[in-house]
Amino acid sequence: MKPAVWRLLAVTIGALLFIATVLNCYSALFANSDLAISGRPDPAHPDSFVITKIKDPHAIEGTVHPGDRAALEDNSLANRLRLLRGRAGERFVFAGTTPDGKPVRFVDTVQRTGPPGPAHWIYELMGVVFIVVGLLVAVRRPADPVARRLVALFLSLAAIIHPNGPWTPIWLTGFIVLGVGPFAQVFSAYAALSLAVTFPQPSARGIRRFLRRFNPWLLAATLAVEAVAIVLSVVLQRPTPRWLSMVATVETLAFFAAITVAFVVAIRGATGADKQRVRWVAYSLGIGFAGPLITFIVAVTTGRVEGPVAYLGFSLLAVPLGLGYAIVRHRVVDIGFVINRALVFGVISGVVIVAFMALEWTLSSVFVRVSKVTSTSLELMLALLLGFSLRGIHSRVDAFIDDLFFRSRHEAERALKTFAREVAYVTDPRVAVARAHGELVGRSGASDAAVYVVTGTEAVRVDPAESAAVDRVDVDDPALVRMRATRLPVALADVASAFAGDHAFPMCVRDTITGAVVLGAKTNGETYAPDEIATVETVVLALGNALDALQTAALKAEIARVLLDGAPVEALRRTVDPAAWVRGAVPQPAGSLPGLVE
């Protein structure tokens, strides 16, 4: 699929999920409703449940007690969908028996309740994170195969988390419950396995290659079993055969086993930075899917999910958090800056919302009663207070996020900027070049570096390190030409340059390129971030200006020697190799001296 079409499809799905999330949150706040009874499934009678609690006896017409078994009297598909939707005011007739076998019949009216507890909002927040990260990846990297698999995983998990609500019509409730939900559950497993068998690179042979080919067949088989089970149990209202349930269970466990095996093999075969990336992805998915896996096993073996087991789904939080960290810190997909800004925006929004809710509740429940000040006035004051506090909140959150993900990188950048200020005070060009070389290699994580000075028709290498970098490059090398034209760093992969490395940085003195510094690729396999490139550029510019200042000082000293000590003028006429001057072989400035030629 073409990147533009794929991006449009992903953004459309993400937007629909986000709209559903907003409507669900609104319904939860202002139209949350529930039956007056609660219960647990009865394994012996699939269409029935055992009543465990009567929450509001006034909403029930008839006699019913905890422990009674009940089922919908009208068990049609439409009525069951109405029950799932749970719109306030709707009435449902239940019939069943007491533990003694006596018949029971009662009417339960769905009652409006207050907002749900923290568990609901945790799931909603989790879904929002899946949608936002998925959309960011889809927009920024529509042609990247890894990005596509991550988007498929994030959006399918968001579709599982965000079910229907009271706002949905019956047909949409049925589509979500019977179509979107089951498909998203299976497809999320398929997407996770696709990521496991292809990241960081697909295997040409072995178990990962077999699993990559097996994955689409497992997806098709699992979807077929799900469809048959839904038709039998929901549409035809027949019990699902035991063998079909066993097949579905085996297929689900096969997905989890395949994902585990694929990641174990990938970790063992990866090297360098790829090993760190695979570990983060594997551990994030492993921890995230551990809760649903345990919940699934408990549901299969006991037929019910209750108590602490019901909260194991919170482990899915590890997926967006872990993969988000891997994207930002280890660049699983190279959109770290975008995710970083999204995290800053999300945390600021969360802080402001929580602060507003907490302060508004405190003011309305305590301060208003004591001072008799109107609630509207207090809310205006609170809004103004938070508005004036946004700048401070933003700076602290930004610093916290940056420190969380990039502490070592920022420490290195601060050290490089310190050196850029100090290099102007070095008095020996050899010391300046040597220190610059050491700082750039040690702080940037580059595999090597080379410092060049332009002399006549060549750029000559002057740093003292021993490496495979070339010693001389023509002054009209494409990289040097581009740097002369733009005064900006050049990614060497974009030009046919003789420089060996990843990026070339120009030494700019006024309107002239006097030299260049070439950095090799990072030792950890990562790419240079924009802020890292900007910092190195600052260091190289400072080095070029420092060498120019030293040349100027040496020229002044030579002129004084000629004028005051009577040294021969021919000493000023000589054209001295700048590379030799930087190396300290010639204690005077390089180049011819305009104005002294006559």
Explain what you see.
With 598 residues, this protein is α+β, with helices and mostly antiparallel strands. It is built from 16 helices and 14 strands. The strands form 3 sheets. A 6-stranded antiparallel sheet has the order 2-3-5-6-7-4. The chain has a 6-stranded antiparallel sheet with strand order 11-10-9-14-13-12. Helix 8 (272-302) runs antiparallel to helix 9. The longest helix has 48 residues, at 375-422. Mean pLDDT is 80; it is low at 585-598.
Descriptive keywords:
12% strand; 598 residues; six-stranded antiparallel sheet; alpha+beta
User: What's the total helix number?
Assistant: 16
Structural class: alpha+beta
**Per the principal axes of the C-alpha atoms, what is the gross shape?**
elongated
**SSE pattern:** HEEEEEHEEEHHHHHHHHHHEEEHEEEHHH
Strand order of the largest sheet: 2-3-5-6-7-4
- β-sheet strand percentage: 5-15%
- The share of residues in helices is 55-70%
Q: Sheet bearing the most strands, described?
A: 6 strands, antiparallel
Question: C-alpha Rg, in Å?
Answer: 34 Å
Mean pLDDT, all residues: 80
Low-confidence stretches: 585-598
- Count all strands and give the number: 14
SSE layout and pairing:
Blueprint: H1 3-30, E1 33-34, E2 37-42, E3 45-54, E4 60-62, E5 69-72, H2 77-85, E6 91-97, E7 103-109, E8 111-112, H3 118-140, H4 145-161, H5 170-198, H6 207-235, H7 242-269, H8 272-302, H9 318-329, H10 336-371, H11 375-422, H12 429-444, E9 449-455, E10 458-461, E11 472-474, H13 478-486, E12 490-491, E13 503-509, E14 512-519, H14 530-565, H15 570-573, H16 578-583
Antiparallel strand pairs: 1-8, 2-3, 3-5, 4-7, 5-6, 6-7, 9-10, 9-14, 10-11, 12-13, 13-14
